[in-house]
Design brief:
Elements: H1 2-26, H2 32-45, H3 50-75, H4 77-86, H5 88-91, H6 95-116, H7 127-132, H8 137-162, H9 167-199
Helix pairs in contact: 1-2, 1-3, 2-8, 2-9, 3-8, 4-6, 6-8
């Protein structure tokens, strides 16, 4: 993965940054923790401009978030509630839980989208409740853009400052991503087990 990303960005430039960041949001296993630090290294080397890299990275991040947003919006809350009731055991949520979650999102949605874009493993999925809650496209784009710009700026700055050691950024952030994923997985398994016990 590392070799592919570096070689692709070396040849594709700004377009490569945009495409990889879009794919990173559509298909999360492609890590922004490697994409943007390398882009920062290329900026430090003088081959690309900082503004261009930030614009391309942020635009790609938003472009990748939109399919999740529109997919959730088209699928709709009512269909999700019916699906949740049919598969409550494995989803660990019911129709009532969906209503509560969307009500909470209605109250705090802007903050959730803004800060959610800064959290590995959450930054892609945060588009789903935004779509289900029918958050306006304008608000979604505004807060997603701010959050994405902060995230891409942080990673790009790390690559710029560390120059040839830019890959260390990914090594530092990758364990954090795995810890967050592990916590979420543990929480999910706990919900599945306790739900089945309750049903029994």
């Amino acid at each position: 993965m590392f070799k592919f990303i570096t070689e692709f960005l070396e040849t594709a430039g700004y377009l490569g940054v945009f495409v990889l960041m879009a794919l990173e949001n559509i298909f999360p296993p492609i890590p922004s923790e490697l994409i943007m630090p390398f882009a920062g290294f290329v900026v430090a080397r003088g081959d690309l401009s900082l503004a261009g890299v930030l614009i391309a990275g942020t635009a790609g991040s938003i472009a990748g978030a939109l399919p999740w947003y529109y997919g959730a919006r088209i699928y709709g809350k009512e269909r999700l509630k019916k699906f949740a009731d049919r598969h409550a055991r494995w989803l660990t949520v019911t129709a009532e839980d969906v209503d509560k979650a969307i009500a909470a999102f209605d109250r705090h949605g802007r903050s959730v989208v803004l800060f959610g874009r800064l959290i590995p493993a959450i930054r892609t999925l945060i588009s789903v409740p935004a779509g289900l809650a029918c958050m306006s496209l304008g608000q979604f784009l505004l807060y997603s853009t701010i959050g994405s710009l902060i995230w891409t700026g942080f990673l790009t700055a790390g690559g710029f400052l560390m120059e040839s050691n830019y890959e260390q950024i990914g090594k530092y952030i990758d364990p954090v991503s795995k810890i967050i994923f592990g916590i979420l997985l543990t929480w999910y398994l706990y919900r599945v087990v306790t739900h089945r016990q309750a049903k029994a």
